[in-house]
Amino acid sequence: MKDKLESIKSQSIAEIDTVDSIQQLEEIRIKYLGKKGQLTQLLRGMGQLKPEERPVIGQLANEIRDMISEKIEETAYCLKRKEREKRLRNEFIDVTMPGRTKKLGNRHPLTKVLDEIEDIFIGMGFSIVEGPEIEKVYYNFDALNHSEHHPARDMQDTFYITEELLLRTQTSPNQVRTMEKQKPPIRVIVPGRVYRSDEIDATHSPMFHQIEGLVVDKGITMANLKGTLELFAKKLFGEHIQTKFRPHYFPFTEPSAEMDCTCSSCGGDGCHICKNTGWIEILGAGMVHPNVLENCNIDSTVYSGFAFGMGLDRIAMLKYDISDLRLMFENDKRFLEQF
Ligand code: DAH
Q1: Is residue 211 within 8 Å of residue 191, measured between CB atoms?
Q2: pLDDT tens digits for range 305-321
Q3: CA torsion sign, 86 to 91 to 92 to 97?
Q4: Record: fold of 109-336
Q5: Residue 267's pLDDT band (cuts 50, 70, 90)
Q6: Does the beta carbon of 311 sit less than 6 angstroms from any atom of ligand 1?
Q7: With a 6 A CB cut-off, is 253 part of the ligand 1 pocket?
Q8: Which of 37, 73, 254, 276 has an alpha carbon within 20 to 30 A of 91's alpha carbon?
């Protein structure tokens, strides 16, 4: 019996030394110390021993059982520690690693310039209004004093929807819409999309953007027009910018003019942007035609006003030295990310 006990001892210890999981260890515990385990079975046979042998063998058996239990516990502890270390190694987070940055979008160059222009006019007491892109022929042409045979009315230039409806070719119809709704004093700007039947190239697009301006009050003169637009040009392009007004024709203003600015790129010396003239055309303007005021039931002997209109895309192209209008509408991130 003693030999058997010794062999259980050495065999179990050898087995415990080779385990590499808690589960294997548990199997060994059951194999030797479990209810039907080898050691337990052996102790059950103690009755067959001689009475004087029993305490000796009993003590030895207890010692061996304690030893095996202890060895199992120790091994379990080591295994658990190893497992924990392995898990921690796998879960290791390097808090010094650079984070993943979220890419923020940025404003479209047209939106940027529009925001800037709106701020300038808001600073001068203007408010911002908007109007429909599908417009009545009446507002786009008739009420704006276009003669019946004005070339702009031509199907070749204008997208008609019906005989009375079209895609607005200018933001000017909102002069009339505003004056119908609101009595003077009026100071508004109207940004928006406009449409013309143009072929697409570096400077033309069937859809582009304009900003209209309208001021109506008692005693408004050409001096107010010039002062307002000069200040606007300096705020937008810089204090050093100079302006000049050339006579022009628009059906809805009389007199009419176009405003040029000294080229902000070359300062007026001449370059590719101003086609070596030193000047750049910025907008059309004029004193609101009495017919237009009367079309809106505003007494032209009491009130006068000025109006102006500019191409937003063109201004953005000048401000950011963009050479091709098509870039504005292609949504190429390499282009858009530059602003
Ligand atoms: N609507 C004109 C155009 O599209 C621009 C314009 C010129 C607007 C003179 C005005 C103005 O209000 O007074 O060419």
Answers
A1: yes
A2: 999 999 999 999 999 98
A3: positive
A4: BirA Bifunctional Protein; domain 2 (3.30.930)
A5: confident
A6: no
A7: yes
A8: 73
